[in-house]
Structure formats: structure tokens, C-alpha cells
């Protein structure tokens, strides 16, 4: 991993509603998941920087290409820090499920918003880019409960779109303390979007977990 970082059919209607260069898709909101503990990283990953840009800002800019509205979902301990650094909407995980991982973040935003689709991104994929979101958003399709990136054989549950009809099941999982994204995916009818659908540079999906994974990243 260190090496990599050292180098420097709603579907049709969605297509019609969205320019090739990317603009907000009607009924789609964006969520930056930033409520993790960053234990392996040692400091909050959202505030690590790549080339002077905070990681969380990279996710926000990516989502701006497709989302009508954006929420950063974090932890109460980081709220002030976020508010000093961004004018974006920052909320915290629903109290009932706080600490239960990314699923809690998705739940929180679905509860707050009536948007049909929730486009999720983690705050720790610093090579993510708007073009990827635009290409993925074109696969939003009412036939599916979720549309998830699965390039190069790696399913990325935190890079994808969840339809709001998944809300009830997410709530059930959280109530039973089953916090695994896999449990949600197992229950859903999913469109996995792969390199056969659109080609993307593998580095875009690299996520940072430890400081030594990213030589050129400032913490
Ligand atoms: N809103 C929210 N986001 C979370 C939660 N747990 C993890 N995330 C986010 O989900 C993404 C992937 O999480 P991890 O790689 O496990 O990150 P982490 O939990 O901060 O890191 P570790 O403590 O080292 O596991 C990151 O963007 C996290 O910020 C949570 O409970 N709530
Ligand atoms: Mg974690």
C-alpha cells in the first residue's frame, strides 16, 4: 500500500437529469462518513491532508458533483473542529446507535432527509474524485436497493448509493447490534458496478487506515 501512496430504470431518467459533466441528481443527497475512531491512524482521518486539502473536503467535493445536499456525519468530539473548518452541514450519529459504525451514519442521514438515494463516501479515500461519483450515479436504478462500486474484485460498501427503502432494514440491524455492512448487502438487491461498467484507476478506491500507508499525506 505504501508504494501506491508514494506515487505521486431510473437509470435512463437519471442520465437525462444529469449532464455529462455532472450536476446534482434529483432526489440524491451525499453523506461523508466521518464518525470513526481513527484508532489505527492515531488522529482523526477526516483532518489528514493530501496536497493541502483535508480528506473530508475531498469527499465533499466528490459528492458535490452529484448530490443536491451534503451531510458530514461525525462524532460529537469532532463537531467543533469541523465547524471551524467548513460551512458544510455537520451532524452526529443518532444517539441510539452512536458507536455502531458506518451503518449508524447512513441511518442518521436517512432519518433526517427524505431523499430517495443516499450517496455514501468514507472520509478516508483521498484519491476519490468527482468523475467517479458522476460515473457511478448514472447507475442509480429503482430496480435496485443499492448500487455499489466493486471494481477489480473488491466490493466497496462505503462507495455507493443506498435507496431509502433500505432504511427499515438498517434500523433492524442496528437494533440487533449487527453493525456489519455485509449484513445490509446480503439483504439487498444490489447492482455491483465494476470496471466492466466504467474503468477507474484502482488508486481511487484506496482507503487510508494507518499513517504509514500514506507517505505524502500530512496528519
Ligand atoms: N458516521 C460514522 N462514521 C463512521 C463510524 N465508524 C466508522 N465510520 C467511518 O467509516 C469509514 C471507514 O471506517 P474505518 O476505516 O473503520 O475508520 P475508523 O473507524 O475511523 O478507523 P479505526 O478506528 O482504525 O477502525 C471512515 O470514513 C470512518 O470515519 C461511525 O460510527 N459513524
Ligand atoms: Mg473502524
Question: How would you describe this structure to a colleague?
Answer:
Keywords: Cytoplasm, GTP-binding, Magnesium, Metal-binding, Molybdenum cofactor biosynthesis, Nucleotide-binding, Nucleotidyltransferase, Transferase. Its cofactor is Mg(2+). Its EC number is 2.7.7.77. Mg(2+) binds at residue 124. The protein has helices at 2-6, 11-17, 55-64, 79-85, 102-112, 130-137, 167-175, 181-187; strands spanning 28-34, 49-50, 53-54, 69-74, 89-92, 117-122, 146-149, 156-163, 190-193, 217-218. It has 219 residues and is of the alpha/beta class. The chain has one domain: Spore Coat Polysaccharide Biosynthesis Protein SpsA, Chain A. The strands form two sheets. It has a seven-stranded mixed beta sheet, with helices on both faces. Strand 4 (69-74), helix 4 and strand 5 form a beta-alpha-beta unit. The radius of gyration is 16 Å and the shape is globular. The model is unreliable at 1-20 (pLDDT under 50). Residues 33-41, 45, 73, 93, 99-102, 104-105, 122-124, 158, 209 line the site of guanosine-5'-triphosphate. The site of guanosine-5'-triphosphate has 23 residues, from strand 1 and helix 5.
